[in-house]
From TrEMBL:
Chief place where the protein resides: membrane
Lineage: Eukaryota, Metazoa, Cnidaria, Anthozoa, Hexacorallia
Gene3D superfamilies to which the protein is assigned, alphabetical: Rhodopsin 7-helix transmembrane proteins (1.20.1070.10)
Name the record gives this protein: G-protein coupled receptors family 1 profile domain-containing protein
Stated family: Belongs to the G-protein coupled receptor 1 family.
Organism: Desmophyllum pertusum
Stretches that traverse the bilayer: 37-58, 70-93, 105-136, 157-177, 211-233, 254-276, 296-317
PANTHER family for the chain: TRACE AMINE-ASSOCIATED RECEPTOR 13C-LIKE, TRACE AMINE-ASSOCIATED RECEPTOR 19N-RELATED
Subcellular localization, as worded in the UniProt entry: Membrane
Amino acid sequence: MNEKYKRSIERLNTTKRQTCKTEVMHMVYNRVLSQRLFFAAVAILSITGNLFFIALIVRNRKLMKNAYHWILLSLAITDMMTGIFLLLTPVYIIGEQPALTGENIGSAIFCYIVANQFLVFTLGIVSLYTVTLLAVERWFAVFRPLRYRTTFRSHKVHKYLITVWVSSFVANSTHIIETKYVLHGDNTTNHGDNTTNRCVFHGVAGNEARAAIGVLEICIKFLIPAGILLVTFTRLYRYRKDSAVLTTARRSSYVALTRVTHMAAITSFVMVLCWFPNQLFYLLFKLNVVQLNTAWHRATVILCMFNSCLNPCIFLLSNKIYREKAKELLQSCRGLLKNDEISLAESNHVVQSVVCVKFIKGNFLEEDKVEIFEHALNTSLAMHSHELS
């Protein structure tokens, strides 16, 4: 009887140690400066690069008439938000545990949505699903041109994008379920030699169930979208190869279609390449083969987050239209800066002139000659403004 009791106690202690280990392994605040600086650089590049591309699309209303521009705009917004939440998620750049109070609902929301990296990785799923939608859009444009116009009208594209966002949050909802917010006690609680945050990762199922859930997750989040991308662009490549000889009348439309399809294919390939190591590592973690927060795991996280700042470069390098619009946007920005400099110069000149006029009128000019002097001064100012413009 005593032996059975001892064995049950040992199994219970082993389970507790594994649980504590899982909690700690989920969110370890890395204080390596080089890694934090790299994440900060990725975040800044993601925000600035994607913001520039968003301005490029929104500024040119004609681009908004095509479905793929809407899809790319949504992708840029998603990547920009990824950069923003990289800055806000403590585990990446701040490297310190957030001070969460027990009874504060805001702290609990921050734990379940931001601190546990839920939003950052959900936005990654949104990006992958958006690229998958882009691949389907390209397939319809090539193989179903008549149905394309009705299937990808603007209002339908908006519905597709909303579906992409909702599906991504649902697919990653297990991340919230496996997060536990400790309501009582101090900001940190001790479990033997281990110390865990108030916001911890807590496995809710046994090893077999976790393995099954992990396989299902990897299929929904990555393998199915990646499979759709592979099949779609393989068929598009074969079609392009078979349609190399075209009539002159169709040549221009074929080139435009090919250019957009190439851009979509490169974007998809780079995204799958960046996210595959992380998703594979996550699956192995669910199967209890590896542990999180090792050097290899952190490398996979860096790689998949780095993808968020690559897409604007891909868009500009692979699409001539975007390069032309980017030049126009930069020229308009330079024009605004030049106009501001001119306005400042004119303001300084006018202020100096007014001071001089008041001084001269009050000290040197007679009343009958003031109007002549003011007329000559106004003429000089007008000529100076014309020279500046």
